[in-house]
From TrEMBL:
Annotated coiled-coil segments of the chain: 187-221, 439-476
Subunit structure: The methyltransferase is composed of M and S polypeptides.
Origin species: Geobacillus thermopakistaniensis (strain MAS1)
Protein name: Type I restriction modification DNA specificity domain-containing protein
Record carries keyword Coiled coil: yes
Amino acid sequence: MSKKQKTIEELLEEALVPEEEQPYEVPENWVWSNAGALSETIRGVSYKKNQAEALKDVNNCLILRGGNIQDGTILNQDDNVYVSKELVKEEQKLQKGDVVIVSSTGSSKVIGKAASVSDEFVGESFGAFLTTIRPNKKINSSYFGLFYQTSNYRRLISNLAKGSNINNIKKEHLDNLPFPLPPLNEQKRIAEKVERLFAKIDEAKQLIEEAKETFELRRAAILDKAFRGELTKKWREQQNHLPSPEQLFNVIKEQRLAIVESKKELNEVQSMFENFNFKQYQNERNWLYLKANMFCYNINCGSTPTAHISENGEIPFLKVYNIVNNKIDFEYKPQFIPREVHEGKLKKSILYPNDVIMNIVGPPLKKVAIIPDQYSEWNINQAIVRFRPVESVLPKYIYYCLQYDETLKDIINETRGVVGQSNISVSQCRNLVMPIPSREEQEQIVERLDNLLEKENKALASISIYEKELEKLKQSILSKAFCGELGTNDPTEESAIELLKEVLQEKVK
């Protein structure tokens, strides 16, 4: 027995959102409909690992994944995946104006991320962890897609998607979303006005990006002047009692040999000092150019004792994500290890306040930080190395020197690793050559860099505030757009309920 066809009245009753469930008030000629009445929900392509291909050809198509959706836009990625067109159903081929949504993920921040399909991705497809919503042809696809960029949508969908271990958006979640539907001409006007306003915001954001780039260039120029001796040139000319390069060399040698921990290390360090060429590694400023292991405790990385890592414990355990803007951020995903592991398996990578650390696995590389005194001891994983200089070399001088482009330039150019990853070895870190002036001049350099870079950082922070305000402005525009407050609504236009009836009529045929 066939299922009874629903009447237009029954479909309309199902589609309209009851007044008590409507999120907010909209103009009188708008209606609240559930999104499912206005669109078709399509699940993604399932495929086996051995069916995935890395290169595009005429017989396959791109399979979008969560990483392809960034900031409301679909982007190509270096690790794009392709599958045979035979695995893709006709309805799973993307059309312009489709909205692609991340519908299954372990991240609450990623769940519900959405982007509209542009011409570039028409005919491609999407994976099983994504869902596509295809608006009815009678609905303006630009207006429809903008709804899925609103904070109201993200808030609703995030609450609905919460699961025990993984966030999932079900078909009924998407179909039952309350959707503010204006008349068709108003949809077009809203989409056009939002596009114009967003274009102006994007221009402002581009100017901010250009300004940030100039900050980076200025910062690099300041560091360059510091480590070529220009910042302290006048100060140096006024000094009469600075140690000679030979005196500085001998003091550093004595301090370094006093802290060797093994015969192997002793032989390596002695060899470095014995083979040092004063003519080659000295300049007119009387600075020495020394390998890092000549003026630091033996440089080591840590490791990951997986079975012993916990969210609570005695010894804080640092990973690369804890280095933020060249400072330690231990508020984000803090992890700890037991003291017995710290003093046993990870003994060689124990950290103390004022030690300098740097990541050796990227991208990006050159993430550097000084260990704070928040804890008396710390430790690190294998993606980070420790620099602990001898008394004649200031930790903060090393901190700045590791951020100087020239210090790591040659090594970064020859880094090797898996595709998309850059690695620096511990051996390369030990052999990093850095300019070492007297301790007195190091103090002057650090003081000048502190002052100059603080001014730059304050200016950059001001710009970052404007950047955040622009993002808030976008959300404010979207909020007004879907409340009918952009000044584009014409109350004399026919009610959107007639448009909804036209859409539903197709289901009656």
